[in-house]
Amino acid sequence: MEELSNDFNDTVIGKLIRVKEELPRKQKMLANYIIENSEQIGIMTAKELADKANVGTTTVMRLTNRLNYNSFNVLKKDLYNASLNYGLTTWWHLKKSFENDQPTNNTVGHVWEEVITLLEKTLSEAFYFNFNKTINLMLESSRINILGLRSSKIAANYLGFLLEEFSPKINQISNDAEFLYDRLLQINKGEILIIFGHSPFAVQSVEAAKYCYENGIQVILITDLMSSPITQYSSILLNVKASSKQYSIVPTITLIEALVIEYGRRTSDHSIEHLDKLGRLLNEKNITTSQNLKFKL
Q1: pLDDT tens digits along 164-204
Q2: Which one has a higher pLDDT value, 220 or 74?
Q3: Which of 65, 86, 107 is at the close of a domain?
Q4: Total tally of structural domains belonging to the chain
Q5: Given this model, what pLDDT does residue 90 score?
Q6: Which residues are in coiled coils (predicted)?
Q7: Among the ranges 16-20, 54-58, 84-88, 92-96, which has the highest mean pLDDT value?
Q8: How far apart are CA 280 and CA 10, in angstroms?
C-alpha cells in the first residue's frame, strides 16, 4: 500500500492503523478509541484513558510498549502532534443531532456554526497533499470507478453524476450491490476505485477494497473515520471531519465539489467543450431551457 500521505505512516496514528488488526481484542478496542479521540488524549491520565476505552490500565501500558514507547507520557505527546497535523476526528451518529434537549430558537445558527468549524478542521497539510494526489490518480487512470453503499451511496452518486456530465471514463457501481462482484471483476489495472466509507461501514465496501488491493488496483478512500477497516487497503485516505454534536455530510459534499472542479479544470480542453455540446443538445430537445419561463396567473 502506498503512503496515505508524505509522512503519515510514521506517526503514532499511522502505526496504530497498521497494527491494530493484529492486536488482542482489548488492545484493538483501545487502539480504535485512540485513533478516533487522539485530540482529547493529551489531557488524560492512563487511568482516565482506560476508563474511557473500557479497558484496564494494564492494556494501556501493554499497547504503549507494543508501540515501542517507554512511557505513556511520551505516547501522549506524539498523539498530540499527530492530532495537530492530521486533524483526527471523533465517531458520530445521526442520533447526536437529536440528543440536545436544551430549548433553543436558533437551531439553524448552531448547525451553520458547526458546519463551518468542521470545514475548517478538515483542512490540513495532509488533506491538501492527499487531495492533489487523488486528482493526479484520477487524471492518470484509464477509468474511475465509484462505490458507496448504504449511507454512503448518496455521496457516491453525487460524485458520479457531476463527473459523468463531462468525463467519459466514469463507472458508477454503487447502484448494483447485488452484482458488485461482477462489476469488480471488470475493473482492471490502470483503473482506480473511489470508495465512500462513512460509518457504519458496509461489509461489501470493505470486501471491494480488499479485492482491489489484492489485484493491484489503487483505492481512494473518503471517510469520516481513520480507523475504518477500509483504510488498510487504501492508497490514499481523504479524512473529512465529523461532528460529535450533529449529523452532517457537508464536508463530504464540499470535498466532492472541490474534486469535480479541480478535475474539470485540469481537463478543461475537452470538458468545457463537452458541457457546451450537452447544454445545446438538451436545449434543442426541449429537455432543459436557458430562457426564463413565463406563467400566466
Answers
A1: 988 889 999 999 888 888 999 999 999 999 999 887 778 89
A2: 220
A3: 86
A4: 2
A5: 37
A6: none
A7: 54-58
A8: 52
245 with 187, same domain: the answer is yes
HSE-CB at 57 with a 13 A cutoff on CA atoms is: 7
Give residue for cell 461489509: 203
Distance of CA 200 to the CA centre of its chain: 12
35 with 143, same domain: the answer is no
Compute the distance between CA of residue 175 and CA of residue 5 in angstroms, rounded to an integer. Answer: 30
* Chain centroid, CA 192 distance in Å: 16
Tell me the CATH number at 154: 3.40.50.10490
If one compares 43 and 25, the residue with the highest pLDDT of the two is 25
pTM of the predicted model, to two decimals?
Answer: 0.66
Domain that holds residue 230: 120-283
Q: Do the strands 170-172 and 192-196 form a parallel or antiparallel pair, or are they unpaired?
A: unpaired
d(CA 3, CA 234): 9
pLDDT at 100 over 70: no
d(CA 194, CA 177): 15
Buried b / exposed e along 134-147 (16+ C-beta atoms within 10 A):
bbebbeebebbbbb
From 264, 272, 231, select the one nearest 18 (Cα to Cα): 231
Backbone dihedral angles phi then psi of residue 91, each to the nearest 5 degrees: -75, 145
**Residue 95 falls inside a structural domain:** no
The domain that contains 55 carries what CATH number?
A: 1.10.10.10
186 and 54, same structural domain?
A: no
pLDDT for residue 289: 65
Q: Mark whether 18 and 124 lie in a shared domain.
A: no
Q: Give every CB contact of residue 90 below 8 A, 6+ residues apart in sequence.
A: 36, 37, 39, 40, 242, 244
